């Protein structure tokens, strides 16, 4: 390694780096230092002693960022459906269902006058209205606010030849303002008895006003299962700015939506001077690239659909993380300017063959096993399931489990702004492979790496003895600085951290990697209240219960709240293995009890535990909502096989092996000194490697108990190797014991 290179020229004599060198991030650092030195050049550096050149760092380089901050989209939708006089500030992006927040209502006789907030900004449209998840077929013009205008429901559940609203035979009449309205609908103002005034326009917001007739007593609970009725509106939402042509229009482009949220958020909007707009244009091009799908045809690479709510007290960059996750993209900051790095294949901009002696060279080869995953699953809101959560098929990282050993380790994360399982599956692969990038290089680079910024791709080739660290890397952070050397020269310093990357992260073959998913068959319930979302169910370590020195296996289920505002609690039941009673096979549902609404945790999650499950048997949970107007339909969990907790079992000592003839070897294996051990497994092999050994026998044996076994039918003068493993009552296996060997007589 050479000494630091001395630059014997004035600071302003540097040439600008080529923007293409960082593909396409390039001349940021140079422009930052030139801007800082505008006080007249080199003398400024002499006074300062050392000049910082706009440190460049990624804001979200690791998979752990997925397990954080924002509530899941299901919880957001449920919360936004609750009546309130202080509605959450929300931006609805892309094409999705937007829940309506009741923000004002008045009951007069059998008529409900109500206003719902949909979007805290103007919207594009067109849109479709759903009441209690049932599509409203309509006549009329929902944007006509004049007397007698508006739209009205005409399908069976909302049509009536017995009641009228403003001269129309219907149970519901509604108007939609997409942001340009200057007053409420005339019929809302005149009919509400002064509750709504001409000033209640919600200017610049997207809102829906409605008049609903409760109807006769017999069918009322079927027509209006929730109070107030649950509103969802499907359509094209926010209008976003596209810097590539200067136009503002509806778009599902992930990069443009991130740029819009940064520029227009109510928490801390970014002026354009603090954004690298060109990188968002690059990201927009990437997002619009067409990617093949298994069924044929193409879809855009990264689309973004969902509801973004804003809260105080949290960095806006963290609040936007779900938008970034929709494309597995990342933000970087250079000299206070924010930029986007989309996830797409990029060529290396630089090959690093040397580092300076300005700081110690730190080389990391392996990450903690806690941060390595062998498979990945994403949860996403599925349009065919009324935007309830669905899971992608499991993406198994080829060779990962064999490389790590042990059981599979799953990365599960939420993609709240992805509504297409094919896009979600691609991101599963990206996140899974990204988690396995272990190598890291930290050191000081030479000034010829001046073009690099956080997010740049480079190659490392340091030569012997650092060959294990050769390969493709992404710049995680780089902090250029200029220090004085003497009266006529300065020293450029480039401390940097590089993290391993791979072309496999962004490769995708839909014919072999995309998995089929069953389409949802959602049909809106006309019950009195809506059921909760599908309950999850787990077993093993997460559900096990400890009491003193005894561990009991468990089956645990959890679910979130029903979207119905009239929900008061939840009744749950469980079903286990079949039993024989009076000569008949019985597999009945057993009552688990009722949980009140207050029994949920602060996130609205309810937990139920199956009593005394048997390992190896199948169990299932079902839940229904108990509301003011009765109960909902049952909603069922998946079926799960109960297992015990995963624990570490000590390994036995090496077996003793003695040849007694030319065809027989006697083996004595001693159980591990572990009170949890219940059985010992003996393996044999022709080579000294337990991974290729064959199981010979399994014997019941407690701690430190010895058992014997004869390995017969062997050839003369044959050397055999033997190993043992301990197993506990839950089926957990220890590591292989050390080997023992013997050779049959000649």
TrEMBL record:
It holds the Pfam family Phage-tail_3. InterPro entries: J_dom. Keywords: Membrane, Signal, Transmembrane, Transmembrane helix. The keyword tRNA-binding does not apply. It comes from the Bacteria. The chain crosses the membrane at residues 32-63. Residues 1-22 form the signal peptide. Residues 312-460 form the Tip attachment protein J domain. This is Phage tail protein. It comes from Paracoccus broussonetiae.
């Amino acid at each position: 390694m050479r000494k630091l290179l001395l630059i014997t020229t004035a600071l302003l004599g540097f040439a600008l780096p080529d923007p293409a060198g960082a593909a396409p991030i390039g001349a940021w650092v140079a422009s930052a230092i030139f801007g800082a030195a505008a006080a007249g050049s080199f003398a400024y550096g002499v006074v300062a002693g050392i000049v910082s050149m706009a440190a460049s760092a990624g804001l979200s380089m690791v998979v752990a960022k997925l397990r954080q901050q924002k509530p899941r989209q299901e919880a957001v939708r449920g919360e936004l459906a609750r009546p309130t006089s202080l509605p959450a500030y929300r931006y609805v992006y892309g094409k999705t269902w937007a829940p309506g927040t009741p923000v004002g209502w008045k009951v007069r006789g059998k008529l409900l006058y109500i206003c719902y907030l949909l979007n805290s900004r103007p919207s594009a449209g067109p849109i479709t209205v759903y009441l209690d998840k049932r599509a409203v077929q309509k006549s009329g013009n929902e944007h006509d606010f004049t007397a007698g205008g508006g739209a009205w429901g005409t399908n069976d559940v909302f049509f009536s030849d017995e009641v009228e609203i403003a001269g129309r035979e219907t149970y519901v009449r509604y108007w939609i303002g997409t942001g340009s309205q200057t007053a409420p609908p005339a019929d809302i103002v005149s009919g509400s008895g002064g509750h709504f005034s001409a000033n209640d326009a919600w200017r610049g917001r997207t809102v829906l006003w409605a008049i609903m007739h409760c109807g006769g007593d017999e069918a009322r609970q079927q027509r209006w299962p929730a109070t107030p009725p649950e509103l969802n509106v499907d359509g094209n939402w926010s209008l976003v700015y596209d810097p590539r042509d200067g136009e503002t229009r509806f778009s599902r482009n992930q990069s443009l939506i991130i740029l819009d949220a940064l520029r227009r958020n109510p928490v801390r909007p970014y002026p354009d001077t603090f954004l690298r707009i060109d990188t968002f244009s690059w990201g927009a091009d990437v997002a619009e690239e067409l990617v093949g799908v298994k069924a044929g045809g193409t879809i855009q690479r990264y689309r973004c659909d969902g509801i973004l709510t804003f809260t105080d007290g949290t960095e806006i960059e963290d609040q936007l993380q779900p938008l970034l996750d929709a494309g597995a993209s990342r933000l970087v900051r250079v000299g206070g300017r924010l930029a986007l790095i989309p996830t797409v294949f990029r060529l290396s901009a630089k090959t690093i063959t040397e580092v300076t002696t300005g700081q110690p060279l730190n080389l990391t080869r392996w990450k903690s096993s806690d941060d390595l995953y062998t498979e990945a699953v994403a949860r996403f809101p599925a349009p065919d399931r009324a935007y309830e959560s669905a899971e992608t098929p499991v993406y198994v990282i080829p060779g990962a489990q064999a490389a790590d050993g042990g059981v599979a380790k799953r990365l599960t994360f939420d993609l709240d702004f992805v509504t297409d399982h094919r896009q979600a599956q691609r991101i599963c692969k990206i996140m899974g492979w990204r988690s396995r990038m272990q190598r890291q290089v930290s050191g000081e680079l030479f000034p010829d790496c001046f073009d690099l910024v956080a997010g740049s791709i480079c190659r490392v080739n340091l030569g012997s003895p650092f060959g294990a660290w050769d390969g493709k890397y992404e710049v995680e952070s780089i902090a250029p600085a200029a220090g004085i050397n003497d009266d006529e020269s300065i020293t450029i310093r480039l401390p940097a951290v590089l993290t391993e990357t791979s072309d496999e992260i962004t490769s995708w073959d839909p014919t072999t990697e995309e998995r089929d998913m069953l389409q949802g068959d959602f049909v809106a319930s006309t019950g009195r209240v809506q059921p909760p979302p599908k309950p999850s169910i787990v077993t093993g370590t997460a559900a096990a219960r400890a009491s003193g020195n005894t561990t009991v296996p468990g089956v645990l289920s959890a679910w979130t709240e029903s979207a119905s505002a009239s929900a008061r609690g939840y009744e749950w039941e469980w079903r286990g293995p079949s039993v024989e009673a009076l000569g008949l096979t019985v597999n009945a549902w057993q009552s688990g009890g009722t949980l009140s609404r207050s029994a949920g945790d602060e996130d609205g999650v309810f937990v139920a535990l199956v009593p005394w499950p048997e390992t190896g048997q199948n169990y299932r949970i079902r839940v229904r909502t108990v509301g003011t107007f009765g109960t909902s339909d049952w909603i069922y969990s998946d079926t799960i096989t109960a297992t015990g907790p995963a624990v570490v079992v000590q390994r036995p000592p090496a077996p003793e092996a003695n040849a007694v003839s030319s065809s027989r070897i006697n083996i004595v294996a001693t159980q591990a000194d572990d009170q949890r051990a219940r059985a010992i497994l003996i393996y044999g092999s022709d080579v000294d490697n337990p991974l290729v050994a064959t199981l010979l026998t399994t014997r019941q044996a407690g701690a430190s108990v010895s058992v014997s076994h004869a390995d017969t039918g062997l050839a003369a003068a044959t050397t055999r190797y033997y190993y043992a493993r301990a197993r506990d009552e839950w089926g957990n296996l220890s590591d292989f014991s050390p080997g023992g060997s013997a050779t049959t007589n000649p």
